[in-house]
Every structure is written in C-alpha cells, then in structure tokens.
Design a protein that fits this description.
single chain, alpha/beta, Urease, subunit C, domain 1, TIM Barrel, 2 domains, five-stranded parallel sheet, 17 strands, about 20% strand, binds zinc ion
Length: about 450
C-alpha cells in the first residue's frame, strides 16, 4: 500500500510532525501515525493540509469571466450580468463544456481544491431540445473531472420557471429546463456512473425557489432519495435583495425563512449564498446544521452583498466556500475576502478567529474544509483514517511562508501569499495531480480551452 511521510501536517488534533499516512488501493487513508520514521515512504517535505472542497461551481462561466466588466447604459447589477451569461450559455457546444471544465478543474486543483460540487444547469441543445443522450452535457462534466483527477459531486439542476409563482421561463432559459419526470429520468440515467466511486457523488440542485415549485422541490428530493437517501441537496437562496422581495410578495416569507419552514433542511443541504438573512434566519439556519455555501469573490463581483459571517459562525453555523462564476479560482483568496468583507463593514480585525489569541487563517481553513466536505458529501476534509487521501503540500520555499510554523502557515497562506503560488503538490486519493505548482495536464487543457474560446468569442 502507498505510504506517505508528511513532514508537518494539519490533523484533526492540530499540527503534527513526521506523520506516516498509509493509503489503500482505493485511495482511502488506512492509518495515520505521527512521530514516525519511514525512509521508504514518499516524503512530502513541507506543510501538508487536507484538500478543500469547492462547493459551488458553474464550470462554463469560467469562459465568460472578464466579459462582463464593461459598464452598460443603466445601473449594472446581477440581473444585467445574467443577460451576458445567458447570451454566452446559448453558444456552448458539448466539446466547449468539456474543454472549459477541464481547464477549470486543473486550475482548481492547482488552487487547493481536490473536490468540486458542479451545479450543472446547461442541459439541452440551443433552443431547448434535449441531446440524443439527455445526460450528454453531464457526461462531458464527468469526463472533465476524470481527465483532471478532481473528485466530483455532480448536481444536475432542476429548473422549470422564470420567476416566483410559476412564471413561464424566458427563451434564453430553455437550455436549462426539465419537468419533474424528465429530471427523475436524468438522475436515474446518471446514477450508475457514481456507484462504487469514492471520488464521485450524485446529488441534486433545485436551482432556486424562483425556478421550481414547492411540489417539484419535493418530487426532486424523492427522486434523489430513491437513488441515494443521504446525497447532497444544493439550492441558490437569498443572493439578491430583489429575490427576497419577490419571495415575500409570493409567499409572505423571506426565502430562507420559507425553506426552513418546510421542515426539510438538514445536514444534506447547502444553501448557496444565503447572503440576506435576518437575525432569526441566522439562528435557525445555524441550528439546521446545513452548510451556507459562500462565494465571496463572485458575490463581490456581482454586487450581491455581504454574508453575516460573524453572527452566523458565532451561532455555530457551518460554512464552505465556492468559486461559483470563477472570476477567481483561489481558495486562499475566497477565504481572505470572507474575512475582509466583515472587517470592512465593522471597521475591526480578526473577526472570524473565534476567540482571543486564535488564528483567523486556521479557523477559516477548518470551517471551509469540514463544511465543504459535508456539503459535497464526500469522505474528505481532514487527514484521518477512513477519509480520502487528499493532500495539499505547501511550498516550503515560498517567500510568504518563510519562517512560519503551525497556524501561522495558514495565516500566511491566506493573508499574504500570492494566491496559488504557495501550493507545490496536490494529491487526490493518493494520486499526485499537481507537481511544482502545475497540473500534470496543464498544457493539454489550455490548448483545448484556447481553441474553444477562440471559436466562441469569434461568433
Ligand atoms: Zn451559482
């Protein structure tokens, strides 16, 4: 069985030196022993962290990052950005989806993410007719995940309506749409690709309360439970104040309040964004044990607002991070901005450290690694027996890490390093996929990506 000797490693009990990790044939950790001597083991000569889960991704949006930064005639907002996104989504062919996702997943691995939850909502041909295999675009995402080596939680999106109260969808939303029956068939056809794989999980993503009816939400959960009763359920919620107002007009309740009142939210759930919360919603969401899926760089890019992280984490609320629209793919940057948003609105510092003399970087990393693992429903998040052997080796020669030890490594990585550059090697299920800071297929992915982008942007 492969054996790794980690010079310094973050374990559930804190930092340990000379940690021997034995990995089984499936890439799962069989044992962890600190203070070991093992000259025959593969040496990871530096600080080693568990791999992070990127809990929210729309892979195709990687290719439109940077295309929505030109001011329009009126007030630019999430809703004007969405028009650009719809125009872009309308042009994508299956090979584009695969090329973009492969490039993105390679970047994610370089950035410290060893798993991704893909919130996948472009399903059909332009115009809305399903492909001969209705799961065609999902299979392209699976192929990209396999090519890159990233672990995948695939979340086919259920999308049916154009607004609260079952408004008919727009023309531009037709590539996204399913009936409940067609959606259940899509899940069934995908399920075999997820069986007996420690690096894959199939879940669901009802897009938002504006895009599905209450009945469809229940039907989607029932369809998932027939396949995997513990699998993740993700939903966009309360990202925009206009969405909160529309939800109140429809139901008399705010989105998070409405969802919590259904009595179904538990540890399987990831409420993506959940930006706009009342004090009561903060307490109730924290108590539900669901994960709030935070995407600070995207939320900043879109002008969404700032999640009340201080109050929510003080209440024991669980979080994870995602790169969502991929205007940035850097775990350290999203964690940094999460803390900085709180600093900027409160005019104070180290707000998420969780107590006096505690490291902000450590608290952020622990919360995101454990919450992220829960949200993607995969055995990861800590270096321990029974978990997958996902490791990030930080570059001990990185200037930002010079002279640092223990939690100060995390503070330096998150708050003072140049994004990805401090990660030198990444392992998923015991297999090395990033060497010297570069994904092993970086050049091939970039060539295919350039080809797709050149064609897409020419049209
Ligand atoms: Zn999203």
């Amino acid at each position: 069985m492969p054996r790794f000797l980690l010079r310094q490693a973050l374990l559930p009990t804190g930092w340990h030196d000379n940690v021997l990790v034995v990995v089984d044939a499936a890439g799962m950790i069989a044992s962890v022993t600190s203070g070991s001597v093992a000259p025959d083991a593969t040496l990871l000569d530096g600080a080693v962290l568990p791999g992070l889960a990127n809990l929210h991704s729309h892979a195709f949006q990687r290719a439109m990052a940077g295309l929505a930064e030109r001011a329009g005639p009126g007030n630019d907002s999430f809703w004007t950005w969405r028009e650009t996104m719809y125009r872009f989504a309308a042009r994508l062919a299956p090979e584009d989806i695969q090329a973009i996702a492969s490039q993105l997943y390679g970047e994610m691995l370089e950035a410290g993410y060893t798993a991704v939850a893909e919130f996948h909502y472009v399903h059909h041909q332009p115009g809305g007719v399903p492909y001969a295999d209705p799961a065609e675009l999902s299979r392209r995402v699976l192929a990209a995940a396999d090519a890159s080596g990233i672990a995948l939680t695939h979340l086919p999106v259920l999308y049916r309506y154009g607004g609260f109260g079952q408004k008919e969808p727009q023309e531009r939303q037709k590539r996204f749409l399913h009936t409940s029956d067609a959606y259940a068939r899509l899940l069934e056809s995908l399920a075999p690709a997820f069986r007996n794989r420690a690096d894959r999980r199939l879940g669901i993503a009802p897009h938002s309360l504006r895009a599905v009816s209450p009945e469809m939400l229940q039907e989607a959960i029932a369809a998932l439970n027939a396949i995997d009763a513990g699998a993740p359920i993700h939903i966009h919620i309360a990202e925009q104040t206009a969405e909160v107002e529309d939800c109140i007009a429809w139901s008399g309740k705010r989105p998070v309040q409405w969802l919590l009142d259904q009595g179904i939210v538990d540890q399987r759930w990831c409420l993506v964004h959940a930006t706009h919360l009342t004090t009561d919603e903060i307490q109730r969401l924290a108590a539900s044990k669901a994960v709030a899926g935070l995407c600070p760089t995207t939320e900043a890019n879109l002008g969404d607002g700032i999640f009340p992280a201080v109050e929510y984490m003080a209440a024991g609320g669980r979080i994870g991070i995602g790169s969502d629209s991929h205007i940035s793919v850097a775990a350290a940057e999203d964690l940094r901005l999460l803390e900085y948003g709180q600093r900027l609105i409160t005019r104070s510092r180290n707000l998420l450290a969780g107590g006096a003399d505690r490291s902000t970087g450590r608290r952020l990393f622990d919360a995101a690694s454990i919450g992220g693992a829960q949200a993607v429903g995969q055995p990861m998040g800590v270096i321990a027996a029974g978990r997958r052997a996902d490791f990030l080796l930080l570059d001990q020669d990185a200037p930002a890490l010079a002279g640092k030890n223990g939690d100060s490594i995390l503070d330096a990585w998150i708050f003072s390093s140049q994004m990805r550059s401090a990660i030198s090697e990444v392992y998923v299920a015991g297999r090395r996929v990033v060497e010297q800071g570069r994904h092993i297929r970086r050049e091939a992915f970039a060539a295919d990506y350039r080809k797709s982008l050149t064609r897409l942007l020419e049209e």
